[in-house]
Amino acid sequence: MxxxxxxxxxxxxxxxxxxxxxxxxxxxxxxIASMRTLAGGISEGGLSLFPLPNVVVGDTVSLxxxxxxxxxxxxxNAIVRHNAAHCGLEFSYVSPEQRKLIxxxxxxxxxxxx
Length: 114
Prior knowledge:
The chain is mostly beta strands. The chain has a single domain, classed as Beta Barrel (Thrombin, subunit H). Helices cover 11% and strands 45% of the residues.
């Protein structure tokens, strides 16, 4: 197969399988909608969740992530990059301390090729 016919991998960092409880909050005009869900994948740059209702590509959401290897929840903001078969979230900003916790958790998980 010629190199130019393959689909490029657009991920900046590798994704790992995970089962992480997450609370997703979307701030609307008059209310805040929060929902509990489970992340099925994680990377240094974001999360993969089940599809989220009432969330569209480009929305910014707040995340409360409960890593099994951490003592306290991580609070991050993320941008919805897609919301079809699964919801892809890209972290807006990750502090060095948060990145270290995420990296540690990722190293303990199986690598996910897709």
